């Protein structure tokens, strides 16, 4: 069993279920926004495998989970906008990737190592009959409105907080598989496919060209 905890997030799970039920018809465009509050130390970046394999690997799995079909083409761009040391280590800290499937559905992923307002995790899916989306989780859902405008609490600032419920459900699923001897999901094959997308994104950024993939 692989630790792709986002699959167990209650909000994303509800979104995926409504998607499979046909709530918005055929998928046309998925937009995944994934931004960290601050970059990791450069010492970590040097041994991380690069942003596409280290951080965006979760977004690639999320894209496969939501698309319901395998991407066949990958195009990636990346820049170093946050920490010059990351660029000196041969990596990027600001990136965008476009995935395309054989049906024509598109998934665009936006990732940054800097979001001064907190851990930014959003998904929007445009379909032939409408739209599904999930937003950020805040410290609490209280909002105040005065003549100065609308004010609410900050976005959760750390991924362990944002995905606390997902980690709990993931652990419960793992224990269920151990107890019942059932096949875990997501499994090793899901990890391999996400990694192949990450590798394709890395090659695309280096070449400046789209890369075909067969998963």
Quick overview:
The chain has 215 residues and is α+β, with helices and mostly antiparallel strands. Helices cover 35% and strands 26% of the residues.
Question: Would you kindly provide a written description of the structure presented here, covering whatever features stand out?
Answer:
This protein has 215 residues and is an alpha+beta fold. The chain has eight helices and nine strands. The strands form two sheets. The chain has a seven-stranded mixed beta sheet with strand order 6-5-1-4-3-2-9. The radius of gyration is 18 Å and the shape is globular. The two termini are 19 Å apart. The model has no long low-confidence stretch (mean pLDDT 96).
Question: What is the secondary structure topology, with strand pairs?
Answer:
Elements lengths: L9 H11 L6 E9 L6 H4 L5 H4 L2 H11 L3 E9 L4 H5 L5 E8 L4 E7 L7 E8 L2 E5 L8 E4 L2 E4 L6 H4 L1 H17 L7 H20 L3 E2 L3
Parallel strand pairs: 1-4
Antiparallel strand pairs: 1-5, 2-3, 2-9, 3-4, 5-6, 7-8
Number of helical segments? 8
| Strand-residue proportion | 25-35%
Largest sheet geometry: 7 strands, mixed
Give me the count of strands.
9
Order of helices and strands: HEHHHEHEEEEEEHHHE
Number of domains: 1
Helical fraction: 25-40%
- Look at the structure and name the CATH superfamily: Dihydrodipicolinate Reductase, domain 2
Q: What do we call the CATH topology?
A: Dihydrodipicolinate Reductase, domain 2
Q: Which class of secondary structure composition applies to the elements?
A: alpha+beta
The overall pLDDT average reads: 96
Instruction: Provide the CATH architecture.
Output: 2-Layer Sandwich
What topology, given as strand order, has the largest sheet?
6-5-1-4-3-2-9
The parts where pLDDT drops under 50 for at least 5 residues are none
What's the N-to-C terminus distance? 19 Å
What's the shape?
A: globular
Backbone CA Rg: 18 Å
What is the CATH first-level class name?
Answer: Alpha Beta
């Amino acid at each position: 069993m692989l630790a792709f905890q986002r699959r167990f997030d209650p909000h994303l799970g509800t979104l995926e279920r409504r998607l499979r039920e046909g709530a918005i018809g055929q998928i046309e465009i998925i937009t995944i926004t994934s931004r960290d509050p601050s970059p990791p130390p450069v010492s970590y970046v040097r041994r991380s495998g690069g942003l596409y394999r280290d951080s965006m690997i979760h977004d690639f799995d999320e894209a496969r989970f939501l698309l319901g079909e395998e991407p066949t083409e990958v195009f990636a761009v990346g820049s170093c906008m946050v920490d010059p040391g990351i660029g000196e280590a041969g990596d990027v800290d600001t990136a965008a990737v476009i995935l395309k499937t054989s049906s024509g559905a598109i998934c665009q992923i936006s990732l940054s190592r800097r979001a001064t307002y907190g851990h930014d995790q959003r998904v929007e899916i445009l379909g032939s009959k409408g739209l599904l989306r999930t937003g950020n989780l805040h410290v609490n859902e209280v909002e105040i409105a005065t003549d100065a405008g609308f004010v609410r609490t900050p976005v959760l600032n750390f991924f362990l907080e944002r995905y606390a419920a997902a980690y709990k459900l993931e652990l419960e699923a793992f224990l269920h598989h151990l107890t019942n001897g059932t096949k875990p999901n997501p499994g090793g094959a899901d990890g391999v496919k996400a990694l192949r997308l990450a590798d394709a994104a890395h090659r695309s950024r280096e070449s400046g060209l789209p890369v075909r993939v067969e998963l």
